[in-house]
Structure prediction request, 388 residues.
Amino acid sequence: MIKKSYDLLVAGSGIVGLAHAYEARKRGLSVVVIEQNARCTGASIRNFGFVTISGQGDGDTWRRAVYSAQVWRELAGLANIKILHQGTWVLCQRPEAVELAQAFLKTAMGTACTYYPKTTYKDLASLGFANTDNLRLNESLGLLYSPHEFRIESKEAIPQLANYLQNEMGVDFLWETEVLSIDDSYVLTSNDQMQAGRVVICPGSQLTGIAKRYIERHHLELCTLQMLRVRVQDGFILPGSVMTDNSLARYLGWSNLPEAKALKERIAREMPEFVKEGIHLIVVQSADGTLVVGDSHRYGSAEDVFASEQVECLILELLYKVLNITEHTITERWTGVYPSSNTYDALIEKVSPRTRVAIVSSGTGASTAFGLAKDNFDEWLANDEDFD
Ligand SMILES: Cc1cc2nc3c(=O)[nH]c(=O)nc-3n(C[C@H](O)[C@H](O)[C@H](O)COP(=O)(O)OP(=O)(O)OC[C@H]3O[C@@H](n4cnc5c(N)ncnc54)[C@H](O)[C@@H]3O)c2cc1C
Prediction:
């Protein structure tokens, strides 16, 4: 039975809200998650389910990703969430990408990653890597391999995680209920009035709702992404998640390295139409063999509701450049939205001693949410001795 009073009320059932619920229960707080929809329909179920470490920005984001990957692995076992494939292959198609990949290996973030030059491709199978010949190896100069990544099917994993939190960890959920306002002692929802010792608002891309007045100073935009699910020839298996040169030029763990400059300039010269739409390739595979392929990035004050056929064609052009596929059928198209900041990957806004807003302001939430929630509670609980 839903109670009227909790130690923590979480607004939003995306991965950021669920991560806060999980970290709070681990610390013994009673928790209710309130979600305005009948289930999570936001970025958390629209993403690749690509839980990444390599490529995450150095510092907090990388550290949070390392922690989150560990929690995902633990929870996957406990909540019966399938890990679909492991490791990432980045095809380096330009000498500038090779230089950047090799520079990355010299950083602390490159630990356990490997660069395989073309001369070593013949050894990949004997090294235990299956299906690398499904990559268009002839088109590449070398491969950067990261063992850290794995993939979950988000549209299944997020409900599974919510069920686990509810059934095994005692988190209450209120669906189809919107958090309307918060004051020092009460939270008004579209159903009822509730009491909570603390409130954390995890609104995802709903920047004009209840969080608006608290986060205005962060000047967040919305980023809209186009995604595809494609069926390719029978029997095609990815060796792991796949990315390419322009991913190296985009993701901060790589693109912030000084060696990225030459690659970024070359990509800007050679692929202006891709750069304009923020297109870079990520390919992952589902249990039924279909590939989830993306993505593009359009920024603005509102969601871009019109998916473009031209963007779709560009994404598919990249797909054929990196995989040995002979045919494809698009089986699903969707867009997703996340809040975006030019300055930071995530923010925790301290509204009052009892209320905070937690937002991942980059495309990294599936990979970092548990770390963000951990940081939030580690600091919040330590610095609030008056809390009862
Ligand atoms: C297409 C796409 C691909 C991506 N791929 C990846 C990836 O592979 N790896 C990765 O790490 N990251 C990826 N990301 C980013 C990642 O998905 C997001 O950072 C993350 O899902 C954000 O989670 P969230 O909980 O903040 O938001 P959401 O999942 O959007 O959830 C927010 C929830 O809050 C609810 N809500 C809002 N206001 C209220 C209110 N007042 N009352 C009640 N409920 C409310 C909303 O209904 C919603 O369900 C991708 C994002 C997109 C869009």
